[in-house]
Amino acid sequence: MRMWKSFALLGLAAAPVQAQLPFLETFDDGVASTRWSAPIVDEETGVQDGSVDYAFDYGAAGIPAAPGGGSSIGVQFFANPTDNSAGDEGEAIGIIASGLTLPAANFVLSADVYFRVLPGSEDSATEYVTLGAFTGPIKSPATAAPDDEVPFRFSVSNGNGLAWQITGDGGSATDIVRYEDAGNADTGSQSNLGSLDSIPFGTIPGVTTGAGNPNNPFEQFGFQNRWVTFSITSINGLVSFGINGATINTFDNSGGAFAGGSIMLGLTDAFNSAAGAGVYTVFDNISVTEVVPEPASAVLLGLGAVSGVYFLRRRRGTH
């Protein structure tokens, strides 16, 4: 059975003021593939089972306009849609922005995200959406073997740089994971940050969570079939991952282990059942904004922890 967990939220006393926009990707021109890497894959079978469409018309697929505006062109990820063979066949797939070096000063990375689950695909929908920063050079871009390039749970890969993953459907005992691998040194670590079940209902705008949810266990957790905005904010040595303005987790980078590098978008199916064609993720409106805090130094409001009960729920597949 599950145990009690805690979920911490951090806030900054001063809202950052936008200063410069060194990177903006809207995908609208249809040639984003020239500005991003080819797909980078960590696949347990060593054979790629996934894809990236750099000019996907999500409007034609019935997905509404992204909150950041623009056309209905974005980048689409499939992970492990077909491989249902015996053994471990999970897949992590990612892309890295070419020619981008993150600001040495404070910045905010933002991305609109849509986790699509078509009717009939709900039982195979537990996949992890990835947003990463401080991404280093790729060592093995031409191989799908699990060689520690893209974040992948169960210690398969610690990824590249500093990244966070979260399931779109809240279908895992560990829905949120942080990955650390400074400089893509193939070392680093993974930190399991708990389940959406345990986060108090209403904590994250636009994301259904469990503790105190009046509809639990009948309401699907997560953010499937709706737009949310992911962010990674680096302010005075504190790097935070957030969704729709709510801070999910903060990493202390005051020692400067993570600096420069690019950004990664991705999707991981860490489980052994094929997701099928009805489960995919779309990103749009990727931006990096260099910011200056007000006042000059960001002040930590506080660290609060709230506990919630884990509920026994379906788990997709085994590993």
Automatic annotation (TrEMBL):
Sorted alphabetically, the keyword list is: Membrane, Signal, Transmembrane, Transmembrane helix
Q: Where are the transmembrane segments?
A: 295-312
Keyword Signal present in the record's keywords: the answer is yes
Q: Where is the Ice-binding protein C-terminal domain?
A: 292-315
The signal peptide stretch is 1-19
- In its keyword annotation, does this UniProt entry include Transmembrane? yes
Q: Which Pfam families match?
A: PEP-CTERM
NCBIfam families in the cross-refs = PEP_CTERM
- The protein's name is Ice-binding protein C-terminal domain-containing protein
Organism encoding this protein: Pirellulimonas nuda
